């Protein structure tokens, strides 16, 4: 006797659908577990935590600048889908928080250039560029296995709209770079001290309230009209203290808005003519500001801004136009000498706090509307280490 088992058509169809669903789910799970490419990560800047695989192609130091040699720090790396990529638009800028710097920073580990890594972290803008921040894992570090792909020669990948302005300085370093930058930025419109009031209301405008300015040290947003010398008003802070070189408020370094900023009258007085360094006691009305007998430390968010203003002043005023030759040094308590410190600290501040949107806008407004010259260290922060190695 032959036993025949018949499968109903409906049950067969259901079984087939379940099989298809299982296969699709398995495929999706496998895909989700795979790291993203750099191109995918650039397109997916949604704040999610993802793993990304790519090649280390340099050290980002500004939105459109990636060092491929002469590395200045261990704060970030740039990833690309190819070890030979030179276009910054095809790169992902990866923040290196403290725990990863000694192992992955290019200043400490230049041999990591061109190696393949997988980074897990938050996909979000860094240096105003497609990025990945707060990494939780970094693995790999092996050389490119493709023998047809070679690491490009050491160069600095730069694509900047200011290249024409800096044309005579590009490609130079050290004293040659310094000399060229001085020749470029000394061509400026000189303001009066009264004009500085109006300029600061433009250059330091609160991006969230066009009626206000932002005080540099305190970070307070205050009405543009509330300026003067009274308690809780804002006045004109000389970041390079005007007694360091004794240039006062005369037209020139005393009115150069590249280093003049709005600040609370009391906080301005507390800073006085102190040099810059880390540490001290808390400053009233200035959260995260510190001072002692010979130095002042601003809040973290503007440490780089302060440093780059000091570096600008040193390059702009070289002693060849009737003004003192200004220069940062390793001292504090410089008094009336044309120096300000502490150089090593200022360099660290500049590296640790790269230019943000506010600082870049300020630089552009000064160039477009007021002085018609630029702060080169906002446009090219990597030049700091070239001039002050």
UniProtKB/TrEMBL annotation:
<feature type="signal peptide">
    <location>
        <begin position="1"/>
        <end position="32"/>
    </location>
</feature>
<feature type="domain" description="Endonuclease YhcR N-terminal">
    <location>
        <begin position="36"/>
        <end position="138"/>
    </location>
</feature>
<protein>
    <submittedName>
        <fullName>Endonuclease I</fullName>
    </submittedName>
</protein>
<keyword id="KW-0540">Nuclease</keyword>
<keyword id="KW-0255">Endonuclease</keyword>
<feature type="compositionally biased region" description="Pro residues">
    <location>
        <begin position="144"/>
        <end position="155"/>
    </location>
</feature>
<dbReference type="Pfam" id="PF04231">
    <property type="entry name" value="Endonuclease_1"/>
</dbReference>
<dbReference type="GO" id="GO:0016787">
    <property type="term" value="F:hydrolase activity"/>
</dbReference>
<keyword id="KW-0732">Signal</keyword>
<feature type="region of interest" description="Disordered">
    <location>
        <begin position="134"/>
        <end position="163"/>
    </location>
</feature>
<dbReference type="InterPro" id="IPR007346">
    <property type="entry name" value="Endonuclease-I"/>
</dbReference>
<dbReference type="GO" id="GO:0004519">
    <property type="term" value="F:endonuclease activity"/>
</dbReference>
<dbReference type="InterPro" id="IPR044925">
    <property type="entry name" value="His-Me_finger_sf"/>
</dbReference>
<keyword id="KW-0378">Hydrolase</keyword>
<dbReference type="InterPro" id="IPR045939">
    <property type="entry name" value="YhcR_N"/>
</dbReference>
<dbReference type="Pfam" id="PF19886">
    <property type="entry name" value="DUF6359"/>
</dbReference>
